[in-house]
Amino acid sequence: MLSLNKKLFPLIALAVVLFFSLNASAPQKRAIIIDPLSHDSEFKSSAIEILHQSGYSIEYISSNNVTIQLLSDLPENYDLYVFRVHSTCINNRTWIFSGEKYQTNRYPILQLSDLIHKAR
Q: What is the CB-side half-sphere exposure of residue 26 using CA atoms within 13 A?
């Protein structure tokens, strides 16, 4: 039963988000799925199908394309954002995981500002 709940939870959450976003006034609604966990093609196909049936055009960004830069500068021209990410809580702060491999020489200001860290 626990395994089934884990599979259904993302779809139920997506359905709830869609229900509350149906009043969007744009003629062509746009959604973006940000999914560094793209190994689950069942999620991808189900989410895309649900969004298409609800009238959305979809952009899907997966795996290594989910970078710190993308997460820092999210595009603003979407009606719905779906984030499928791992997260953790450290020192009462929620951290999300990107699909980008950690490199000590990348994003030094963000590292010094305590805004990004290597996953432990």
A: 13
Burial group, residue 83, by CB count within 10 angstroms (0-12, 13-18, 19+): middle
Sequence letter at residue 47: A
Task: Note down the domain range covering 88.
Answer: 8-18+26-112
DSSP label of 86? -
Q: Which two tokens stand for residue 72?
A: 């820092």
Residue 39 forms part of a structural domain: yes
Position 83 in a domain: yes
Q: What is the mean pLDDT of the chain?
A: 84
User: Over the stretch 27-81, which tens digit does the pLDDT of each residue have?
Assistant: 789 999 999 987 778 999 999 999 999 999 999 999 889 999 999 999 999 999 9
What CATH number has the domain bearing residue 89?
Answer: 3.40.50
> Distance between CA 76 and CA 119 in Å, rounded?
28
pTM score > 0.85 for this model? Answer: no
In the chain, how many domains are there?
1
Residue the block writes with tokens 């969007």: 24
